[in-house]
Specification:
Largest sheet of chain A: none
Strand content of chain A: under 5%
Protein name (chains A, B, C): Trimeric intracellular cation channel family protein
Radius of gyration of chain A: 17 Å
Number of helices of chain A: 8
Domain Glycine transporter (chains A, B, C): 11-85, 97-170
Shape of chain A: globular
Subcellular location (chains A, B, C): Cell membrane
Oligomer: homotrimer
Transmembrane segments (chains A, B, C): 6-28, 35-56, 68-85, 97-116, 122-142, 154-172, 178-197
Membrane topology (chains A, B, C): Multi-pass membrane protein
């Protein structure tokens, strides 16, 4: 099988879900949503990417609505944010590290899931990226803001890089746990570097016609 | 079968679709959308929850795009809103009662549909809630506003309560028409009480850090 | 088979994808999104309608995430917009002609795809319209604006007209390449006329109660 070690992957999935759910909860708190809004945005951020992934590859019901462990983890993070949001804001740096781990696990895991369902390479790269960034996009659309990933920060690029590498490894039949974990670590490292150096994707040039 | 009496359920479904479509049409009129926008928002509010439900549980094509009765009902409500919106606003209280009935039927009906397709309990609770609130969320996102259900009013809670009860009844094998109708009435009653007493879900505490 | 000539259809699909992707890229540039945002909005506008179509009729993975030709074409248009957006704005009239062609091909092609998968008439009309306007709606929601198609311009009506005619032709068993191409041309012509005459769908009447 192409999957990561099952037990370890669950742990990492839960880390990713928790981190993404914190981000969803924080956006909801900043937008002054109510308790239900905080829980929905936490769940949407944490599970939305996986739901899109599963709908695209025809795996229903999506794991995001059927696995109570992921769902409970997302709702727990939502409750934590609701009650302790000043504290969560204060450890923002730590949350970003968790978030980078989530990005890495979701991108590589998404591509592997897609390959495992027999999807081809192009599809699997895309599915990996969508798994990693889809939840955050749903979170932002529901919160009434243009998705952050489209505006600033190098967030999607590490996911694209990692998903491409893992799909290539699969294509050339050199996939094994070391390669997979290497890809996960690479995504994590690139994302952390982008955060530390405050790297941003380039913007289109301004022109007189586009003030 | 776990479904409600078919004929009665169709009548109730149509009531729910009509009420939700009125809400979609009113939001569109307030946002100054054109005729097509009013019809799309009416259809999205009325049928969107069911479409998400069916996509999540793998029932394609979703009933919202294949059943001409539901679709016609939604479009008719859209036309009514387009031409007579001041009148519809004026009977706002009556529309809210219809809307509460829609919420109840969609939540319980959504969970029963999910159970009927062999989904497990956690999934079916979620699917019921999503069926009930999904249409309104799509309506608001398309209209450029943060979904109302995330901001205020006790709207999702009755749906969650009813879906949980009907799933529990199914789990303990005590499901029958009386129980199902009891759940529908309970959701309706709780929602009406929330409207009358103007109950809202709690908001996160403000802090100095979140002005 | 009900499809258009395969080779010709691919060419037209690519024209439509390219035109829709330019529209997505331009919206992203105007909203000052970064390079990744421009590429995502280009891809969403160009491929989003087809992805919704395929999810609704159960054809997974959707062609928008599995066909590298469509995807490459969308990303190429996104890059063109990113680097040469003042030029793309300047040939806006030509882009609108391409866009009308895209609308026509997507609407008729969407309905034919749906009929080909065994969907009934009502579903196939809706699926055709959703294929044609879905991408633009996703583009606008991601860019934080109310979808243009809901606010102004006669954009969806030609699609609805063409999809209805092609579904009727299929129903009365008089479908053949001439009829199909006639429908495509009709949609194209109606849309161009609407653009030239600046036709708009009617708006709801203002009232004192809705200032």
């Amino acid at each position: 099988m192409l999957t990561l070690d099952t037990h370890l992957q669950l742990v990492l999935d839960l880390v990713g879900v928790f981190a993404f759910a914190l981000s969803g909860g924080l956006v909801a708190v900043r937008k002054r949503l109510d308790l239900f809004g905080v829980l929905v945005l936490a769940a949407a951020a944490a599970l939305g990417g996986g739901v899109i992934r599963d709908v695209l590859i025809g795996r229903v019901p999506p794991v995001g609505v059927s696995d109570w462990r992921l769902l409970s983890c997302a709702l727990a993070a939502g409750l934590v944010t609701f009650f302790f949001h000043p504290g969560v804001e204060r450890i923002g740096r730590f949350v970003r590290v968790l978030d980078a781990a989530g990005l890495a696990v979701f991108a590589i895991g998404g591509s592997l899931t897609s390959l495992g369902e027999g999807m081809d390479g192009v599809t699997s790269v895309l599915v990996g990226v969508v798994t990693a960034i889809g939840g955050g996009m749903i979170r932002d659309v529901l919160a009434g803001q243009v998705p952050e990933v489209l505006r600033r920060e190098m967030y999607a690029l590490p996911a694209l890089l990692g998903s491409t590498l893992v799909v290539l490894a699969h294509h050339y039949d050199v996939i094994n746990p070391v390669v997979v974990w290497g890809c996960v670590l690479l995504v994590f490292a690139v994302r952390i570097i982008a955060v530390v150096l405050d790297l941003n994707a380039p913007k289109p040039l301004r022109t007189g016609a586009n003030p």
